[in-house]
């Protein structure tokens, strides 16, 4: 007898409600849940792949240890004991521990609760995560302006009149730092009520295809566009912060600093016509609700922090911050803001290049050098949790080499990946349907307030959840080092506690009574000033570092634009970073790892559609098929990240059929945003030649 269970898809930030039909332990179907309070039936093709992940024969089912060139299965107790002993000997030899935490941990509430124990057991400041190849500039700006790094503004697309997306492609990504399932319907509804979607992107993306207006922008030049918008508002007297006015500190100072720039110069720099900039500004400044949102295109850039500051200044200048139809703040069921520290930066620096700590971590651009550079405090033992930095971090090839030199490497991952193949031990978590799920971080950035708990659907058997594995490693390391064993609390209890402590004062039991989610209502305006975490409840509009960074931008603006091509990334709806390429049904169709190049640029180099080309950057070279298309603007080429599965020893049999090349063999560790330390993955200068 088949039975249908409700659940939340954990793969991306959209958090779609799904209906999983099971017959015994066999998945019969996975469909969208029309009654889910957030997603209302939306799903994408990746949801069905959850069952592929569950049944994938390549997925490790027991801990493995690398012996010579082979992987040998061992028991959990033996794995923990050996890891503890080997860690103690690394420490005794003067080596430091290190930790890399990957993206899927943000979709796994329970493992996040154990990371602190592991950091403590490792006794290290060498903590890296996918955050510094991702959203750290958002957090830094929020910390500076609103007083807490987790005060994420959420674009109220369902009630806005103008939605401006700069460097985001939610039609492929399903939204990011913005839990907004079913974006296509939301865009259609916006347009049906007379609103406009405006997309600013060097590529005519799937989202741009739906837009009322798409403006091509030269990669990396977003500060020019954003400053020009603010200047156009200023010139037309449409700067109107409205009810925010009494909460603004330094707003006039910020505007004054921007007045040093000229719209015509900025327009020429970013490649967007002055008339178009003025038209967008007129819409934003019309007084009707508007929301400006920026994502990876502006985050992983050399001016990532400056970009996000300017975006929030735009939301403020148009009176749209904390307003219905603007950029709003949630009332989450678990109030992360109330429970975590405001943020940190610069409390310590990295050993080799002296880069500043950010939100208790070090930027990932420092990871390879900290492992490879000998000396006191060199990282000799590394744990990775749900991460694949060899494919996801800049200059992945350098990291690939560095990892092989470690004395001890432990990967908590269910596959032998480009990264975990270097590990001495791989500790695999259970399959996705064997664990529970609660959207701890993502619920707090959703377009609607809600809570939803998904219980495990399949029995655990001898398998372990990520949190149990990380707790096991932390305990083993602590004990081998002669420290007291960490006091591990069951994540469900911690979750229940967090729910109770938050303003909605829910219990986990109450949440569990709502299998389609507990609706906590639409986002409400007027959260500020109460929600602000600055000591005086003022919005800091002119953070010193941002004002200072305008000088760095002015220098770039004064330079002649560089000749040659720049490389940007892209995402596809049927893939997720580096790790969904082992599902046959997701991988089917034409090869997706192609270099998109504009017809003019292709012609100038004698490159035909489908021809093999060699792409070279300062750090590396790849050979890949060209896709000649006017969807990318002249001067820009695009390659997806997350491919490159052809490396020796990777055990992903489906992914190996179409291995592709890694974009991050071309991206450069030396290109980063100096304010945040976040990697600049987009805008890499490259040469492209027919191979
Ligand atoms: N050039 C370029 N590079 C990029 C990006 C880009 O746009 N351009 N995007 C960046 C971004 S935004 C991110 S978030 C990073 C992601 O970077 P990472 O987090 O380092 O990499 P992922 O590809 O997400 O790899 C996740 C790994 O976790 C494993 N995994 C999946 N689910 C689970 C689980 O439940 N438990 C455990 N233990 N393991 C699991 C997978 O097998 C895989 O090996 O990549 C970044 N890299
Ligand atoms: N299907 C799928 N969904 C995903 C993921 C995935 O890999 N696949 N990854 C998940 C993760 S971890 C994240 S962080 C999110 C990311 O979510 P998004 O940010 O929405 O995804 P991207 O496709 O990286 O979109 C970035 C856009 O910026 C554009 N761009 C590049 N350079 C510039 C620039 O200099 N200026 C401007 N204005 N635009 C630029 C690119 O062309 C691209 O369209 O997606 C999440 N969802
Ligand atoms: S958009 Fe797709 S991958 Fe993301 S949560 Fe929804 S079904 Fe899952
Ligand atoms: Mo990400």
Q: How would you describe the overall organization of this protein?
A:
This protein is of the alpha/beta class. The chain is globular and about 70 Å long. Iron/sulfur cluster is lined by residues 9, 11-12, 14-16, 43-44, 46-47, 174, 181. One ligand MGD is lined by residues 102-104, 108, 130, 133-134, 296, 385-389, 392, 412-415, 417, 429, 466, 569, 577-579, 641-642, 663-664, 667, 681.
**Strand count, sense and closure of the main sheet?**
7 strands, mixed
Report the span from N to C terminus.
57 Å
What's the overall average pLDDT, rounded? Answer: 97
Helix content: 25-40%
Shape summary:
globular
Placed side by side, the strands forming the largest sheet appear as 5-4-19-18-17-6-7
Class from helix and strand fractions: alpha/beta
- Helix count, DSSP H or I runs of 4 or more residues: 23
What's the β-strand tally?
28
The distinct ligands, each listed once, are:
ligand MGD, iron/sulfur cluster, molybdenum atom
| Rg | 24 Å
| Beta-strand proportion | 15-25%
| Unreliable runs | none
